[in-house]
Amino acid sequence: MDRVPASFAVPKASDSRPPPHGRRGILARLHARYFASLWDTVVTLVIGLPLLLMAWFFLKWALVDAVWVAPEGKACQLASGACWAVVAEKYRVILFGTYPFEEQWRGFVTIALWIGWGIASGWRRVPLAARLWGWLVVAVVTVVLMRGGVFGLSLVSTDEWGGLPLTFLVFAGTVAGGVPLAVLLALGRRSDLPIISGLCVAVIEGVRGIPLLVVLFFAALILPLFLPPQLNIDKLLRAEIGMIIFFAAYAAEVIRGGLQAIPAGQEEAAKALGMPYWTRMRKIVLPQALSVALPALFNDIIRAFKNTTFFSILGLFDVLGATKAALQDPVWVRYGLEGYLFVFMVYLVFCLGLTFHGREMEKNAWRRLGRGEA
Amino acid sequence: MSAPATPPPMVEMVDLNKWFGSHHVLRDITLGLAPGEKMVLCGPSGSGKSTLIRCVNGLETFQEGKLRVGKTVMDGSGEALAAVRRATGMVFQHFNLFPHLTVMDNLTLGPIYTRGEPEDSAIARAKPLLERVLLTSETWKYPGQLSGGQRQRVAIARALMLEPEVMLFDEPTSALDPEMIHEVLDVMEDLAADGQSMIVVTHEMGFASRVADLVVFMDAGEIVEAAPPDAFFAAPSTDRAKTFVGHIAREGDQ
């Protein structure tokens, strides 16, 4: 005879229904998050009150007591708050550096173009190819506009370029040249051919072991000593090449991480279909690897934007270098804090923009790969 | 020289040997697959059957012996490798579909990029294949949106797009839930009935007895026994095969 088990389960037919609601309302939620228990309340007050106090002091200095217009800096000397007049007075030097004053409309157009396409291409529905082609057009227009010498524009040598347009160009060049180079280095490092993999390891590890400052000094000042004098490469271009190699060395390792995340079966399937190496990489492996590497890659890209500040040590005036130069003026030299805060805000805005771009690209990538095989 | 009575094999291995490091994984493998016939490779895990089938299309290399697929003798050259891969289609245990591409793109990418076939012609060929594996409604989905059985059927259609002379199946149902195994086996039996030459590594002995012309039993890198399915299952001649068939039979009883 069968033993009757002590365990049990009750068959039951029930209609599906929505989950029970939690407590609603802003007050109820605030209470639940910040003041639910005595301990929560203490933490909220101990951390929150000093924050509020600091915010108040800062806002009083930055907004309430601030001076916005001050001819010759007179009004600023009497004020207890921030002297934003320095920005109003010096913004053209900050934004355009040593670029000739009467030609700075070109810089305005450039900045408008970059911000405009930056926002427009952030729109999710713009396909990646269209974004990249758009940036290529923007970059070419920028170089033609800044350099001049055609269409009746006067020629402006790259030594006089400066400010935000220079920062944009250096950054875009770094990413545009650096990402493909990084892909090649990452693939090369995985190569079966010892010479290729050895060379790639040497470049990656060598460059990663050297400070960016040294790379730039080498590219701008020492490299010309080794090159034939006829081969007169522009200083800006030489420094840019240094930036690209530095960026690529780091990004190569990020991309290698992405490559390692792709199961070996993907390449085997592509091989079994008869695809040759570059087709396998271009169509199967890299699209997946780059999607995986995207968050870390954008980390490097944002850092590349900030690394443009290193150009000032070569006598090229990026935004930060131009600000430093602008604040040499004895009338305004006391208001360096305000000047630098303004530049920090500029950097913050652009870096946040890049972060946003990266998030959108990640979402697109995951929407594709998230459907991927488990 | 006299003309051979039977057509030469599609796939022929003569005294093929392979080592992983010092581990001798394939030992003096000699076999031939006649055109239109089906060969099932079975044996305990680690017996070398997957390595053997992966040697056929060059996913694994070997150190000694001869391998011929169709008219191509595998000599390690790039041309031979490309020719062998044109002649074979492979289906993997873990499907290995391309997750970033739709079902349709999974099918058409190979022919478009390896043979330079125009896209519309590849799409036109893909449609009846998807119909054949009963996946017409999933054409524009991504692999991650499909069940395991559906994914494996896509993988079969993808391999068939190359119009291979030989299909290679490497444990095609081992990663599937039991209720999905039959839908994949049905497609494979349908292919077999059409006269497709194939080599199948599998533990599905029901499939082997229904479809195989020859069952090859491997253990420890050697071919231990080779016989038509009736003879093999009814009376294995070696102890090792007897033990293996006994295990399989016990599983079947459950």
Automatic annotation (TrEMBL), chain B:
The UniProt entry lists membrane topology as: Peripheral membrane protein
Q: What PROSITE patterns does its record include?
A: ABC_TRANSPORTER_1, ABC_TRANSPORTER_2
Q: Where is the ABC transporter domain?
A: 11-245
Listed SUPFAM superfamilies? P-loop containing nucleoside triphosphate hydrolases
Per UniProt, which keywords does this protein have? Amino-acid transport, ATP-binding, Cell membrane, Membrane, Nucleotide-binding, Transport
Which GO MF terms does the UniProt record name?
ABC-type amino acid transporter activity; ATP binding; ATP hydrolysis activity
Any keyword ATP-binding? yes
InterPro entries xrefs = AAA+_ATPase, ABC_ATPase_HisP-typ, ABC_transporter-like_ATP-bd, ABC_transporter-like_CS, MetN_ABC_transporter-like, P-loop_NTPase
Question: Which SMART domains does UniProt cross-reference here?
Answer: AAA
Its subcellular locations are: Cell membrane
The residue range of the signal peptide is none
Kindly list the GO CC terms recorded for this protein: plasma membrane
Concerning its family, UniProt says:
Belongs to the ABC transporter superfamily.
Can you say what this protein is called?
A: ABC transporter ATP-binding protein
Species source reads Rhodobium orientis
